[in-house]
Amino acid sequence: MIDDSTPPAVSVWEWMPGHVSTLLSPPQLAAAGTALGRIHALFAGLPGSAPAEGPAGQRWRDIDVDDITATIDQLLETIAGRIDAGDGDAFDVEAQRTLLERRDQLVHVPELVAGLPADLTVQVVHGDYSPVNLLFVGERLSAVLDFRPPDPFLLAYDLGRMAFYPNSVTGDADWLGAAATLIGAYRQEHPAVAAADVRTCGRVALLQLLKSLYGVRQHYLKPGVFQDDLDAFWLLRHRAVSVLPADLAATDTLLAGPADD
Questions:
Q1: Does a structural domain hold residue 180?
Q2: How crowded is residue 196: how many other Cβ atoms within 10 Å of its Cβ?
Q3: How many other C-beta atoms can be found within 10 angstroms of the C-beta atom of residue 190?
Q4: Residue 6 exposed, middle or buried by CB count within 10 Å (0-12, 13-18, 19+)
Q5: Where is the Aminoglycoside phosphotransferase domain (predicted)?
Q6: Full-model pTM
Q7: Is residue 5 included in any domain, yes or no?
Q8: C-alpha–C-alpha distance, residues 46 and 207, integer Å
């Protein structure tokens, strides 16, 4: 139901029971993959599909490494000032280390962007599909929350973000197996998905992590209400950036599955 009695219209839904789990079990991974496959299959017919070289897809080919580097340098200058003044804390030390590492890691961005196929699917997607927006009752998925506005975007973004979520990559020793479980269920529910979208989703997820300074940027430029959580999320995402490239070959092998046969 849409409540338009106030200036911003609000989508009102039935209250659903359930809890959030940031590290999913195999049955939960399968349920999450099935639900995402169903969403993508249903949304494929909505208006807005476009070639990946159009505006939505082009965002992945227009990553401004110099601008990201400049923001990192600005944050490092702020941190150095705090430390030199004797006001530094434990997070400042971690932020300085991780930002220096991220600045070096940005060298991989042009090669990753150049490797993206031109024929990726662009359609209406969930836009924020992740464990924190899923509710489970035991192993059963009870609700999918927080759909973003229906702006067409890369299907591979939705799939890669969920399959290689930082909590899984850094917290599950068999994170490749977890990704395989989710993607297998997704493909079973959405067999029409293009092979290129599946093959590319890991690299799209890595690109998103590489170019994002979410959490640490807020800490120094505009602290959020739950900044401690954002700080922890920045460190978690950065650890995932350190893990994914080391196993990119294994990830590519995993994603070259039945849809390529």
A1: yes
A2: 19
A3: 23
A4: exposed
A5: 9-192
A6: 0.88
A7: no
A8: 27
